[in-house]
């Protein structure tokens, strides 16, 4: 395969810097992330305000959409590795996602005439975007790894640069699409018809990135001797100089066994969920079951050598810990946004910052620190001081935990109805960003280093699925947020002493429970792993303990993982 050829490229002057193909992939991914995050910023608002979804329904739809977006890369990676190649899958996925955004524009145009028609078009649009994403997402990341020899010490730096492109696109998308699509009049009335312009901007960004890749790929996304990277797999044993098998070999028995495992896991997750919402009780279990089953299927390939198997298992171990990182990190879009909205003084230098904007601090810090981190890994590598990838990721988890600890200490010191200063949230996001730079791009690089060539895109899909599992867990953890002062005030207006009900000093009569249900409030404090969450300090300590514990465990097993990496750093 072409990835194998790249791995054995000769040392050239170009290896002193980075291949020009990295710039092409950087720009392509930047425009795609503009498209994805711009649309993502508008989706739930569009569902509630135009398509008449409840907030709960829109959250489930959003979760199912995001989860499937991180599941389909496994299928897209498999098709790429066996049939189409990275290039064709990127082009196919890019154009399909662009079409999906145009369908969102159509839905946002026809809603006034028929909400039901607009809903049908919206579901079709999401399906099309999910399908296109499955082909695009694993292959663009896989091609970054293919630009370099297998053990090139520039890989971590390359993925850090690539990750900066992801965040530049995300920041621009979350800035421009809401400006065009999330419009309110001076009296606070939302201009629902404006959503289509935000979706149109997202679609145009996707087409720009795909067209850019189409015209520049042959000139720049090549090996040092000019051979195309990511072409259709040839499965030519004579061309394989690394000793890796060219083609995955799954027996019919292995496929049937994993299919049975998928069904068993799906039914287990489905009955454990036991939820009336079809997305939560059917789609989520399908995502979890499929991910685990496909990960198992990879290990059944008879062509996998002992070294390859151990390297793949290292990826699985690290992916497991990554779940806890994203489960805590992704509070940015849920609980942290609610806290920014209701319990934070957002005034900064005379500006009352919108609560949804505060999480953009992450993208800004990524843009600022991505290149310095890239240089740091290169400098440490030259001095033989660079830590192995699992240790870097343990550091990332520790920094995430530290960010939450800073906030936990601040909210503990607040008295009465005092609000958290927005500067503390920004400092927290700084530590989260530093942790992300130690973990996420390094994880992408680790897949490129450890994955056998014939499984490169498929294992990239497995990695993304670990992210998806983290996002699902993030929803569960975000629901642990205790009542805020506004909740107590709303309950008091309805004649309910919420504090007394929660503490057990006031009996929760049927009438009180009915009023709380109308207010969408619980009569009990949230609890997690047997511990009751009474206040924000205890809430944030959950996010100190989870990634902190994961960091310690990952650091402790890193020497064991290092042996199974067989020389890969």
TrEMBL record:
Quick one: signal sequence residues? none
List cellular component terms (GO): plasma membrane
Keyword Transmembrane among UniProt keywords: yes
Asked if Transport is a keyword of the record, the answer is yes
Going by the entry's taxonomy, the superkingdom of the source organism is recorded as Bacteria
| Xref: CDD domains | MFS_DtpA_like
**Pfam families assigned:** PTR2
Q: Which UniProt keywords apply?
A: Cell membrane, Membrane, Peptide transport, Protein transport, Transmembrane, Transmembrane helix, Transport
Q: Which GO terms describe its molecular function?
A: peptide transmembrane transporter activity
Q: Which residues cross the membrane?
A: 34-53, 59-78, 90-112, 118-136, 157-181, 197-216, 254-273, 279-300, 312-329, 357-378, 390-411, 423-446, 458-481, 539-561
Q: How does this protein lie in the membrane?
A: Multi-pass membrane protein
Where does this one sit in the cell?
Cell membrane; Membrane
NCBIfam families according to UniProt: yjdL_sub1_fam
What is stated as this protein's family in its record?
Answer: Belongs to the major facilitator superfamily. Proton-dependent oligopeptide transporter (POT/PTR) (TC 2.A.17) family.
Cross-referenced PANTHER family: PROTON-DEPENDENT OLIGOPEPTIDE FAMILY TRANSPORT PROTEIN (PTHR23517:SF15), RESISTANCE PROTEIN MDTM, PUTATIVE-RELATED-RELATED (PTHR23517)
Name it.
Answer: Proton-dependent oligopeptide transporter, POT family
Q: Which organism is it from?
A: Chitinophaga jiangningensis
